[in-house]
Design brief:
Blueprint lengths: L1 H16 L1 H26 L5 E4 L6 H7 L4 H9 L2 E9 L2 E9 H27 L4 H23 L2 E5 L5 E3 H4 L6 H33 L10
Antiparallel strand pairs: 1-2, 2-3, 3-4, 4-5
Helix pairs in contact: 1-5, 1-8, 2-5, 2-6, 3-4, 5-6, 5-8, 6-8
C-alpha cells in the first residue's frame, strides 16, 4: 500500500504542478490520433471530401434506457457505434473511409491521458532533479516514442474503416490498393499486438516516473 500511495502522490504532484503540460499534450495527441489517419489516406489515396457526425447519436440515451435486448447487449452495440467518419469518393463509389467508434475514441482518450501524464511527470521530475540529466534525456525519449507510437501505431493501426471490404484493418493497409485479405489480416493482428505493447509500455513508464516523483528522498536540486 505504501508503494501505491507513493505512485498516486507522484501523479498528483505532477498534475497539480504541470496541469498545462498535461492538458496541452493530451489534447494534441487526441487530435492527432483522429487526424493522422485522414492525412495518410488523403495523401496515399484521394483527398478527403466528406465528413459527417452520426445523425443517430441523439437517440442513443433513449436506446440505452429502453432499447431492444438486454442492457449488456445495448452497451455492447453502443461501444462499437461509429460516432463520426471521413471519406473520399471515387469513380465507383467510396474510395476510402475512416470512422471513429466509441471504442476508438475511448482508446484515443486513454492514450492521450497516459502520454499527457507521462510528460507532466517527466517535466516535474526534471525540474526537481536537475543533476540527473542523462536520466531526464532517456525519459524524454521514452515519452516521445510513446507519443509517436500512439499517433502512428494506434491511430493508423486498429481502426474502424469502411469501403475496404473488412470491418477493421490498419489504415496503413487501407492506404495501399490491391493487398490480399491475408496481408490485411496480418496487419490487423500486428496492430492489435502493437496497441497492447504501446499501452503496456506507457503504463509502466508512468508508474515508474510517478514512483520516483513520489519519493520523499528526492529533494529539489540546489541552485
Amino acid at each position: 500500500m505504501h508503494e501505491v500511495r507513493r505512485v498516486l502522490a507522484g501523479i498528483g504532484q505532477a498534475l497539480r504542478a504541470r496541469w498545462g503540460i498535461f492538458a496541452s499534450v493530451g489534447v494534441g495527441v487526441l487530435v492527432l490520433d483522429v487526424l493522422v489517419p485522414v492525412l495518410v489516406l488523403s495523401i496515399a489515396r484521394k483527398p478527403v471530401d466528406y465528413f459527417m457526425i452520426n445523425p443517430w447519436l441523439p437517440n442513443l440515451p433513449g436506446y440505452l434506457a429502453s432499447g431492444k435486448g438486454s442492457l449488456v447487449e445495448r452497451l455492447g452495440r453502443a461501444w462499437e457505434l461509429a460516432l463520426f467518419w471521413f471519406s473520399a469518393n471515387g469513380i465507383f463509389g467510396i474510395d476510402w473511409g475512416f470512422a471513429v467508434s466509441a471504442a476508438d475514441l475511448a482508446r484515443f482518450a486513454l492514450m492521450a491521458t497516459l502520454i499527457g501524464t507521462y510528460f507532466a511527470l517527466w517535466v516535474h521530475r526534471r525540474d526537481r532533479t536537475g543533476g540527473a540529466r542523462w536520466r531526464v534525456s532517456v525519459g524524454r525519449q521514452g515519452g516521445v516514442l510513446g507519443a509517436v507510437g500512439s499517433v502512428f501505431g494506434l491511430a493508423s493501426g486498429g481502426c474502424t474503416v469502411m469501403g475496404c471490404g473488412a470491418p477493421v484493418i490498419p489504415v496503413v493497409g487501407l492506404a495501399f490498393v490491391g493487398l490480399s485479405s491475408t496481408t490485411l489480416t496480418l496487419f490487423a493482428q500486428v496492430s492489435t499486438y502493437a496497441t497492447v505493447a504501446v499501452i503496456t509500455g506507457l503504463v509502466a513508464g508512468v508508474l515508474y516516473l510517478a514512483w520516483r516523483v513520489g519519493s520523499a528522498s528526492e529533494k529539489p536540486s540546489a541552485p
